[in-house]
Amino acid sequence: MLKIQNLNVYYDAIHALTDINIEVKEGEIVTLIGANGAGKTSTLRAISGLVPAKSGTITFEDKKLNGYPAYKIPYLGISHVPEGRRIFSNLTVMENLQMGAYCRKDDAGIKKDFEMVYARFPRLKERMKQRGGTLSGGEQQMLAMGRALMARPKILLLDEPSMGLAPIIVQEIFHIIKEINGSGTTILLVEQNANMALSIANRAYVIETGNIVLEGKASDLLQDDSVKQAYLGG
Ligand code: ATP
């Protein structure tokens, strides 16, 4: 479904991604784990057209994404939940969700998806008229995910959904990610919380200073000694 081949990304002199290869097949949860600054966010931003590829290709359903403008990416069925949520603080919950559907014109379908999002995140329904900025961190993460779902994506790119959240909320968010995948949405999940990410993913890639150093079944990586040492607390 999504294929990244020999991708190189630079920020001026900084070589952020070096010959990255990642594949996500339809229906999978694939996770990209790695430490701070390893290149996880840059990978997602390259897919979404937010940073240019210096070389290499990104294809989605056989369509080349290189050079494709970022605002058009959701029309292809790719939704991005960015690091730090980036919700619209001054807009209400309902308005934030509406923004997620900017690429759609099917009013009846949009209305149905509001109900789908409210069913998946009952707390957003309770707070639909509240401004986004007044929500807790966990609720803001739910809102960012709900907003992305309003585009009815084929694939959801999630950038560190667990960041800054209490363990109990992280569990809830990961449970919801599993559910979203169960209802047919493919997921590429970027995480520093390797334990949680590997426990829900089918396959995983480990990134270190811009290089993919390991890949395999998530269940195998959970047992891998080097992964245990570096990412799972020994
Ligand atoms: P984090 O979890 O901290 O977001 P990450 O794994 O997502 O880390 P990236 O944010 O992709 O890593 O960063 C990869 C490298 O690129 C790092 O060395 C980072 O300092 C650098 N970098 C990222 N964004 C920029 C930018 N806008 N300008 C210059 N360098 C950048």
From TrEMBL:
Keyword Signal: no
Keywords: Amino-acid transport, ATP-binding, Nucleotide-binding, Transport
GO biological process, one term: L-amino acid transport
Entry superkingdom: Bacteria
Residue ranges occupied by any ABC transporter domain in the UniProt entry: 2-234
GO molecular function: ATP binding; ATP hydrolysis activity; branched-chain amino acid transmembrane transporter activity
Family the entry assigns: Belongs to the ABC transporter superfamily.
PANTHER family in the cross-refs: HIGH-AFFINITY BRANCHED-CHAIN AMINO ACID TRANSPORT ATP-BINDING PROTEIN LIVF
Protein name (Swiss-Prot/TrEMBL): High-affinity branched-chain amino acid transport ATP-binding protein LivF
Source species of the chain: Caproicibacter fermentans
